[in-house]
Predict the 3D structure of the following.
Amino acid sequence: MNTAAQRSAPFAHAPTSIQNTMSTVLLALIPATLFDAWLFGWPAIVMFLTTVGSCLAAEAACLHLGKRPLQPTLFDGSAALTGWLLAMSLPPWSPWWISVIGAIFSICLAKHVFGGLGQNPFNPAMVGRIALLVSFPLQMTSFIAPRPLMSAGAPGLGESLAIIFGGHANLDGISAASALGYVKTELSRGIPVSESASHVPNLMDMAMGMHPGSFGETSALLILAGGLFLLARRVISWHIPVAVIATLFFMGSVFSAVDPGRFTSGSFQVFSGATFLGAFFIATDYVTSPVSKPGQLVFGFGVGLLTWVIRSFAGYPEGMAFAVLLMNALTPLIDHHIRPRAFGRTRKGDPLPVKGE
Amino acid sequence: MADSYSRIIKDGLWENNGVLCQMLGMCPTMAMTTSATNGLGMGLATAFVMATSNLLIAALRGYITQEVRIPVYILIIAAMVTLVDLSLNAYMHELYKVLGLFIPLIVSNCLPLGRAEVYASKEPVLPSFLDGVFMGLGFTASLTVIGACREIVGSGTLFADAHLLLGPVFSFLETRVLPADTGILVVVLPPGGFLATGLLLSLKRILDIRAGKPIRLAGAHSV
Amino acid sequence: MNGRTLYHALVLGAFCLGFGTLLATTDLLTADEIKLRQVEDLQASLGQVIPASIHDNNPVNDAIVMKNEEGKEITIYRATRGGRVTGVAYELLGSGYGGEIRLLLGVDGDGKILGVRATEHRETPGLGDKIDVAKTDWILRFTGLSLGAPPADKWKVKKDGGQFDQFSGATITPRGVVSAIRSGLEFFAAHKTQMLEVH
Amino acid sequence: MRIFPVRGGVHLEYRKELTSEKAIVALPLPKILLIPVQQHMGAPAITMVKVGDSVGKGQVVARGQGLVSAPVHAPTSGKVVEIEYITAPHPSGLPQITIVLEPDGLDQWAQLPDPIADPFAATPAAIRERVAASGIVGMGGATFPSAVKLGLGARNKLDTLLLNGAECEPYLTCDDRLMREHAEEVLDGARIMAHALGTAQIIVAIEGNKPEALASMTKAAAGFANISVATVPVQYPMGAERHLTLAVTGRETPARKLTADVGVVVHNVATAKAVHHAVRFGRPLVSRVVTVSGHAVAEAKNVEVPLGTKVADLLAFCGGLSSPPARVISGGPMMGQPLPSLEVPVVKGTSGILALTAWESNEAPAQPCIRCGNCVNVCPCGLVPVEMAAFVRNEKLENAAQIGLMDCVSCGGCSYICPSHIPLVHYFNYAKGRLNAMDRDRRKRDLVKTLVEARGARLEKQAQARKEAAAAAAAAAAAAQAANPDANRPNP
Amino acid sequence: MQDLILLIVGTALVNNVVLARFLGLCSFMGVTTKVDTAVGLGMATTFVMTVSSVLAWAVETYLLVPYGLGYLRTVTFILVIAAVVQFTESVVRKVSPSLFQTLGIYLPLITTNCAVLGIPLLNVHDKFNFIQSMLNGFGAALGFSMILAIFAGLRERLALADVPRLFMGPPIGFITASLLALAFMGFSGIHTN
Amino acid sequence: MILAIGSLTAMGAALGTVLGVAARYFAVEGNPLEAEILGLLPGSNCAQCGFVGCAGAAAALAAGEAQVTLCPPGGKAVAEKLAKKLGVSVDLSHAEDKGPQVAFINEDSCIGCLRCIKDCSTDAIVGAPKQMHTVVSEVCHGCGKCFKVCPTEAIEMRPIATTIETWHWHKPGSTLSH
Ligand SMILES: Cc1cc2nc3c(=O)[nH]c(=O)nc-3n(C[C@H](O)[C@H](O)[C@H](O)COP(=O)(O)O)c2cc1C
Ligand SMILES: Cc1cc2nc3c(=O)[nH]c(=O)nc-3n(C[C@H](O)[C@H](O)[C@H](O)COP(=O)(O)O)c2cc1C
Ligand SMILES: Cc1cc2nc3c(=O)[nH]c(=O)nc-3n(C[C@H](O)[C@H](O)[C@H](O)COP(=O)(O)O)c2cc1C
Ligand SMILES: Cc1cc2nc3c(=O)[nH]c(=O)nc-3n(C[C@H](O)[C@H](O)[C@H](O)CO)c2cc1C
Ligand code: SF4
Ligand code: SF4
Ligand code: SF4
Ligand code: SF4
Ligand code: FES
């Protein structure tokens, strides 16, 4: 018998696979996606499809260039998920070239130069989003107010194609700031948070999604539901999301209690922006987060803290994506230093002492 | 001898190019390549310093002892840089206004010192001088190419402001490649510097593979 | 100290001596030239905000130093014609998105703007850098305006209810520039007599 | 009884129902028996018979050598027809010395040692000797000579004999059946072992998915105050001795130490039964219970098999293969070994023969690791398999060892759970083997070095001696010349 | 006090020497294949950078400014640095041969680590006083060491990844650095508050 | 001007002094690296590397004048260790590694000339004049010296055979069984 064909135990395997995992995550995103598609209308749907399509095309192109088979990899759902999450983090009416450039950054530069699935140290979707944000701050901060499908004034399919592909949206006319962006701009001209916060949608509206923002970040409650679904299916564990949200809430609450004119409240931090999307779907990306549970807690804490720091002090209104990338960079060091305690050993790795010796 | 001169030229410009192969002088490579013009200017100034400092070091090396060699080399390089700085300021003021900011930084560029250590401290005067010239020109070429790539993708122009550096005659170089305001801004920001250099290095690798040369996969300076 | 150590000291000292001499000589030769160039530079920038037609002196040579409210020294270059001050130019600091913005403001004797230029800034290319004349002529629109025209409550960007256009997606930069110019004009109004008085 | 939590572990599909209700049946004597002289950990036994010899059942055919070894006995009476290198029941498929026995069908016992009438009055040494002479090795899979383990009492302060009835591997039910059908014998063996070890307490640990075994063992233990039965959670690999010890006693065995260092010795239930037979009847280990299972087997069974029976014969007894199996393995699916052929014998450590269909083993080509961390979560040893495998894949074996490769017990949990189907354990097995080989090489190099140095010193000494001799000779000559100045003078 | 802390945070994170100011890139690329080496170089650089910031401040304040020798700034600063480095080199060579072996040609290259010259020059440009110069030097070095360690961690992981041959080694190093710089852009604008 | 030159010269001289003193007091004697390298080499002084024994090889390695793959008896393992010690990266995938070998003396051709015994650095060969010699394979390290000197080609270098004890799993994805 050929020994090379031999393999060692085990000869049993759990019914798990990459495809299973990825499709569960996609499934969890569907409710929020459908809601947002309704909320922002046809142009958003066209934008969403363009983004996912571009990511799949980029994946196929990279596989082809690397002379690798398309078969398992293109359809394992990871590229679709990257595209999906990228679309969720873009302004809903972004023009086609935003989607395409984002896909090139996400899939080609953040994923395939490192060797493809599983090898990338940085979250591809977030690399795409940030490269776009830094390159096209205007387009990437021009959000539209909700304009539900079938409502008066909502563009039809043909008009939507023109908006996305023809560059015919007069963004100046319809754009609105996200809550975080609004508060930040107001603060920059000396208007205290306590005052500007009263002009943003109330928490209930924010949780429901009735406010301007990125395609997928608006409906906090549906994202939360998707996240809980992932938790229930054990695709993700609670460590990262809980650490992110708790840290953000804590920092917000403490600092807004100290200086309400300067800092927004904990619940504002949690319900605005991409907190839930980030905590449940983005910070939890397996590939770019630590593998051990304690490591994940540290990672989540870091994401929460950095998000708060960037939101509160830095030039950008939203910090989740940056925070995730920054903690991605720290992940190898976290993995290096925070390991589970080995059986029969101390935390430092020395054998436990024998009693009586 | 002729053979070794052609070797010096080839090494400097391509085979052992300061940026692409030795990966020295990365700081100006990143910082000064937001446009082709900047890259060119920085490269030329560096080339001048390298040529003169290599010349001086090779000429004076008999007097330099091992223990103080680094300070002496640096002293010579720094003196050359200051010389360039002062004379440009006085006599070629327009050029100085473009380059002014980054001339002092040539002192801390690893490449001149690297060549001093590796080449000028061991070889005769003329080859050392030529080594300085061609290493400098190779450096200039890399910077210009990287600058051009970043400028085209990032701002949609090529050789913008070339007339400030090279005189009004060269304003024909200034081109607009993409429509105004369509550049991908990251490319001219810090991340773009690293990205462009990384991609250029892999481009060189493709060419090397095509040419059938062995490629080096290890870290930048593994000895 | 043994001989070898002394030798190192001598070598390094000798090199320093040689190159120190070289540099000192160069400095000696170039110092005046460089000073001249700096004056020329200043002259060139002042020329942009004070039209040549209104003066017969060299404003570079007619500079007075004043203190602003915060006690910082400001150099005022004065353009005179026939012994009468026809305009002044001085530097302003505005705060933009990327940090400080340095502006040079020229004002005539009536407090009307002769010209403004951004001389140094670190605003984002494609967004805030439109204040640079090399990019757009936005900053030229200030020429001819004064504190009263437009009225004080319109000395703001449109977004804040004023009359000046902001750039789409970049409000912070123009806001900083507008408010810097306004306070520059206010500074002129407050110290007008002192500035215009002939010594 | 208090059960302590154990980190990690997986919840498997056990598929024990295939055989759990199949009572143990005896295999009729096969036509030929292949008896390898090494069926245990340690030094191989030395053959004691020649081709053509007739042997009785239970007669020693190979004797142990050295401290850690075990004798091998004839499983039945018959004639030695050959002694040669034959493929071993080992994944390498390499041959090993094997005694081929042709049963005469009489199954006649040879002269056996006398039963020990009252084992509890006998010295522990006497019991150990009997266990050693009976060729008993650990039946839980490790096949470590049991007598050596029974001697641990001399070195360590022991308080508990832990009887391992966890049987946490899927499919296998041989221990389960043994406990259900032979509870008294098992417990008697355990009591004898406890006596030999000097432990006061015996705990029988059984996973909660074997209620009948629990019931029958509890019933059998009722009369003994020092025996208790513990129900341990159904959590693979609860049967691993360190983890079982932790679960039952709360004591964590330090790395690179034995459970004996925390006062516990673990023995398998089948081992206990074998001890009972050896002590009470003088019978050596010549047969064992094997679970034959898997969906590619026509009739899954629990079979009492004479050692040396060919796997093919055993499968034939179970109705043969009903479909072409994807894998035929010896032992359980998590830690068992793939068999190189069906012509290899059942040996002392063979707890099961499984013929698995493709859907049962659910193998798939490996995909890239997505760093999901599942392997980290399930590893009962607290290791980071994903990282160890990455090191091994890049031949950085020493880095892998630094982060605990040698602590891995090869339980298979990580490979089982990996969504990318990465053969993690295979990587670890490779790395462990390679590191051991490197270690052997290093030891040899050290040996060579000392030899070279010794030789160098010797040569130098010789050279020195020669020089001294030459010098002495020269001196003598000079002295002689001085005495006789004319001797060397050229003739005028 | 708060200002000084802000100064350190600012130079370490916001205007990180490597990622935002583009200083010290040669060692950043060269000595980050292993975390331990990177930490070693980081410590050596921290020492040199802090000490030379202080010495350069002294030279500037007591020599260059009073006597109008501004044009000798580059020369004198670099001499000071060279001396500090070579002194450190001698000490390390003696005290820890293995550290010396791994840092190899980089110790002399600390001299031309632009950061070591750049930071004192920036101190002069920003008119920092003694304490500020020292803290700025220290903060910059801290940021440098931190980036070195992070980047070395990333590269250790990349060494185990299936990076295509085309990008293996230096190219992927630069691309990783690019993404790291992208992430650090999140801190930009902190000073405006 | 005088001040400029003077201060610069003074600085230079001062620094030169500091460096001179440093160079003197912190000078290192010998090469500690050499000793470490020597510890990694097999120590059989077989000279197959072309240097004067292992010490010579170590000196050459420390001076950077030799390849880490220089030592045939050490094989890949030693080359790897050396590469690690010296911080160099070598591509060992192509490095020839015949695997460990042992000498085997063919009984029929051995004339008992004693030459191999004299040359064997580990005294791995036993035998008496004019009698058949044998190799104690546990201590033979496969240097091949005996193979070279044997006048009758009675000595063969054989790869060490894999047994069940020494067998281990191949690397997944590779087709080698050992
Ligand atoms: C690589 C690439 C980058 C682009 N970048 C921009 C951009 O930064 N801003 C922009 O308005 N359009 C950008 N475009 C879109 C085209 O320039 C587009 O044709 C143009 O915006 C048309 O706009 P209009 O219909 O308003 O004339 C880009 C297109 C490509 C392919
Ligand atoms: C990368 C980046 C660069 C920016 N550069 C500038 C700038 O140069 N000037 C500016 O006023 N705002 C700049 N901004 C700020 C945003 O565009 C900010 O949202 C805007 O100034 C607020 O004005 P709005 O009310 O028009 O949205 C920048 C933002 C980003 C993300
Ligand atoms: C992962 C793992 C699982 C094990 N599972 C069992 C088991 O289920 N039953 C068992 O008796 N031994 C099992 N063992 C073996 C035990 O650790 C131990 O060697 C054995 O119980 C000792 O008894 P013995 O010497 O009588 O065989 C397992 C070992 C390992 C490493
Ligand atoms: C729970 C979970 C979260 C994920 N989050 C992301 C994400 O934020 N961004 C992304 O590009 N891919 C994400 N993926 C998909 C996949 O891991 C990603 O494409 C890899 O990073 C590509 O190597 C996620 C996958 C899972 C299972
Ligand atoms: S279980 Fe598999 S895919 Fe998940 S981290 Fe471990 S090796 Fe990687
Ligand atoms: S096989 Fe080893 S590494 Fe894998 S789970 Fe078991 S003990 Fe852990
Ligand atoms: S080849 Fe190896 S063993 Fe032989 S002398 Fe050289 S270094 Fe020593
Ligand atoms: S190969 Fe020959 S000389 Fe070398 S160790 Fe073996 S027996 Fe001795
Ligand atoms: S050029 Fe800056 S460190 Fe080399």
